[in-house]
Write a structure and sequence with these properties.
CATH class: Alpha Beta
Largest sheet: none
Structural class: mainly alpha
CATH superfamily: Collagenase (Catalytic Domain)
CATH topology: Collagenase (Catalytic Domain)
Bound molecules: zinc ion
Distance between the termini: 20 Å
């Protein structure tokens, strides 16, 4: 599993504001939870404080927390097919 996260737009300086290292770390942690959530099959969540909430603006990122809320956590707990299992079921890769 590989996820890439760009920090450029998480920095206050990008918006012409004074640097805030702690805020960048907080935002990075939230993204570092959100993106692997997609990789594990989670869609965006309607709960604005869940890590899987879609951040249209930085204010969304700042409002949400670094944790999955119960509905997302429950989905993560369900067993899923791994990609190698899918290849075994569909050898042509369809
Ligand atoms: Zn997302
Ligand atoms: Zn959620």
């Amino acid at each position: 599993m590989v996820c890439l996260i760009s920090l450029a737009r998480l920095r206050q300086e990008y918006y012409g504001r004074p640097a805030d290292g702690e805020l960048v770390v907080e935002r990075t942690v939230k993204e570092a939870v959100h993106e692997p959530g997609h990789t594990c099959g989670l869609a965006h969540c309607d709960n604005p404080v869940c890590a899987m909430f879609f951040s249209n603006y930085l204010e969304d990122t700042d409002r949400k927390g670094p944790d999955f809320y119960p509905s997302c956590r429950a989905q993560l707990a369900k067993p899923r097919l791994r990609s190698r299992d899918v290849r075994r079921i569909h050898p042509a890769g369809v």
